[in-house]
Specification:
By secondary structure, the chain is an alpha/beta fold. It has ten helices and 14 strands. Strands 2-1-3-4-5-11 form a six-stranded parallel sheet, sandwiched between helices. It has a four-stranded parallel sheet with strand order 7-6-8-9, with helices on both faces. A two-stranded antiparallel ribbon has the order 10-12.
Length: about 325
């Protein structure tokens, strides 16, 4: 029964999409672009979504932003809605590298191109193109700086993001590719906080009860870095424990300027979003040979060079 329901939806979507497409070609109605993002509970993704929508509008397309709230089932609803409503392309920030594959393939079956932004899906035969930050290389740079600031020794903690997101592990692997070569650096805890500020604060509070003598904390994103810093302030340890983030969010850039946070990896969500919207525009005009993965460089921002950067980008 479940299979028949799914098959019916696919057939219905194909018929509806084809009809909408033919209607637009006759009436010259503007094409529609859906922006589906993992969550709007993180300022970084708000910038990503809004920039994608603004760029698509500049190019002459109607847009709508859908918030998946880090829920793959809700993401599926958004894809079904976008397809049945006649959207012509989807600019997509996945909730899960594996769990989101089926949604991208759903769109592909009805010839709706999907351009992944920042996060990827674990296949090369679904999305039209994936525009991704080079998280691994960015965290190699942070790892080197981490080692330098901790003088190659001491206890430290790693706060991971969502375990189903490849960025979580790319960042962790990049960091450890450097740090693990120094035997006097001891990781006493590695826990997930789901890229969430409040969860990171709670996780850090618990870790401090068992490990009050740590010297540094590496966080998989800036929201978690701010949560960790809040926990350190509450424990009276903000001046004793160094915090390193990743993203280039406004509050962390400001905190680096104020000498609270040590460093972050500056991603460029505006560049990623504009590239995805530009790719959709090129697709509408007939281009089909897109690179499957388009890397976007990450730059380390610290207290020495922070003057060269602003939130989510460079000056």
């Amino acid at each position: 029964m479940k299979y028949l329901k799914h098959l019916f939806f696919i057939i219905f979507s194909i018929v509806l999409f084809t009809g909408c497409k033919e209607k637009k070609e006759v009436s010259n109605e503007p094409r529609k672009v859906a922006i589906i993002v993992s969550t709007l509970n993180n300022p970084w993704f708000v910038v990503l979504a809004k920039t994608a929508a603004e760029r698509a509008k500049e190019l002459g397309y109607e847009t709508n932003i859908f918030d998946s709230q880090n829920n793959t089932a809700l993401e599926t609803d958004h894809f079904e809605n976008a397809i049945s409503s006649g959207y012509d392309a989807i600019l997509f920030n996945p909730t899960d590298a594996d769990g989101s594959i089926a949604n991208v393939r759903m769109a592909k079956k009805v010839n709706v191109p999907v351009f992944c932004m920042d996060r990827e899906v674990n296949t090369t035969d679904a999305a039209t193109s994936q525009i991704l930050s080079d998280s691994y290389a960015g965290c190699v740079a942070i790892g080197k700086y981490f080692v330098q600031k901790l003088n190659k020794k001491g206890k430290y903690v790693e706060i991971l993001g969502l375990v189903g997101d490849n960025n979580t592990w790319s960042r962790s692997k990049g960091f450890h590719s450097v740090v693990d070569h120094y035997p006097e650096l001891e990781m006493v805890a590695q826990q997930s906080a789901d890229f969430d500020r409040n969860k990171a604060m709670e996780v850090m509070e618990s870790i401090l009860q068992v490990n009050p003598d740590i010297k540094g904390v590496f966080c998989g994103n800036d929201g978690m870095a701010m949560g960790v810093y809040q926990a350190l302030v509450s424990a009276g340890k903000a001046d004793d424990i160094m915090v390193f983030g990743f993203d280039g969010a406004e509050d962390v850039v400001n905190s680096i300027q104020q000498k609270k946070i040590l460093a972050t990896g500056m991603q460029f969500p505006k560049l990623i979003a504009k590239t995805a919207a530009n790719f959709a525009n090129e697709y509408f005009k007939g281009k089909r040979d897109f690179a499957q993965k388009v890397p976007v460089a990450v730059e380390m921002v610290n207290q020495e060079n922070v003057g060269n950067y602003t939130a989510y980008g460079s000056e």
